[in-house]
Backbone:
């Protein structure tokens, strides 16, 4: 049975879903616009030899609302998760990160590799962050990192989040429609839709949370990152040495990269990236692909994993055909068929 628990850790009161089981612990880290409830179905399907722990990260779900200092990259969230593991007495766990949770994993593994028996990246964001970079090595498009940070969120979507909007009238602004259009393949339906929507709407909204603050820029798309919230934390401006530490410090942790081939959020032509939107003519004053091409998110991830492999770090890639951004929700049994042998070789 899955329980909801709030743990009084040394950093904040952290809410989590827990499925008790055996001594092997799997830590499940959700992405942006979601919460622990997105792991609920998968947790219920795990064999009894696993204990599953799915926290709501800072700024999401029912965890105590504390600001996210984006100048630390994901340092705040990393420290929170390590404090949770310490509070529970888990010396080492398997860890899974979806989407933005994958970005958190790069930072987690780079700073605390000894705490993880393995890492599973599920449709992870690029190690170089979201927006504002080009080429497989993540070169910034502009010196001020324009095109990343809190200003890239759809402001109408943000207002609808604030209003707890549960309608289905706009595929690019209604939270329910965005979830059903982009979170998974549009043909997928789930009886848990309302519960998952609740998890999406549970985000903390504001300049210190989602989407965060931002500043005007002279460079396309004319916004540059601020210093608060998850979208600024995932800006290449604030990721500092995350990529280098992930490559250098984590060779002992095997990595499994699982992704859906129909992902519209994290791809080499993401419909959430201003490079892609510019090439489609959806954003005015686009300067062209030479200056601001679509961010090759998948190619960047593969490049970094290959660099890590050259340092002795093992990884394998699984592509789940016909699935979108959340293959573990869309086809959970197939997903488990890939990850269970990885967790228990």
Residues:
């Amino acid at each position: 049975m899955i329980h909801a628990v709030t743990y009084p850790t040394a950093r904040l009161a952290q809410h989590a879903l827990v499925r008790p089981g055996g001594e092997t612990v799997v830590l499940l880290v959700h992405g942006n616009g979601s919460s622990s409830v997105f792991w609920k179905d998968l947790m219920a399907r795990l064999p009894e030899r696993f204990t599953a722990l799915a926290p709501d990260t800072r700024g999401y779900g029912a965890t105590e609302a504390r600001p996210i200092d984006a100048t630390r990259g994901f340092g705040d969230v990393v420290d929170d998760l390590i404090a949770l593991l310490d509070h529970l007495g888990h010396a080492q766990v398997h860890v899974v990160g979806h989407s933005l949770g994958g970005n958190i994993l790069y930072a987690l593994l780079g700073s605390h590799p000894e705490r993880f028996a393995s890492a599973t990246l599920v449709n992870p964001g690029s190690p170089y962050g979201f927006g504002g970079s080009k080429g497989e090595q993540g070169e910034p498009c502009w010196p001020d990192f324009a095109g990343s940070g809190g200003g890239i969120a759809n402001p109408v979507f943000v207002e609808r989040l604030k209003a707890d909007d549960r309608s289905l009238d706009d595929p690019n602004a209604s939270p329910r429609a965005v979830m059903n259009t982009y979170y998974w393949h549009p043909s997928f339906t789930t009886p848990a839709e309302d519960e998952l929507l609740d998890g999406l709407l549970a985000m903390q909204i504001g300049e210190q949370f989602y989407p965060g603050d931002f500043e005007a820029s002279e460079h396309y798309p004319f916004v540059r990152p601020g210093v608060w919230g998850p979208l600024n934390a995932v800006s290449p401006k604030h990721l500092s040495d995350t990529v280098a530490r992930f490559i250098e410090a984590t060779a002992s942790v095997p990595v499994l990269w699982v992704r859906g081939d129909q992902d519209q959020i994290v791809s080499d032509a993401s419909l959430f990236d201003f490079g892609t939107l510019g090439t489609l003519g959806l954003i005015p004053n686009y300067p062209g692909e030479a200056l601001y091409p679509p961010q090759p998110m998948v190619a960047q991830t593969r490049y970094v994993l290959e660099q890590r492999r050259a340092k002795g770090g093992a990884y394998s890639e699984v592509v789940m055909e016909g699935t979108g951004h959340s293959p573990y929700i869309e086809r959970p049994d197939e997903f488990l068929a890939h990850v269970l042998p990885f967790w228990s070789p």
In short: The first helix runs from residue 40 to 45.
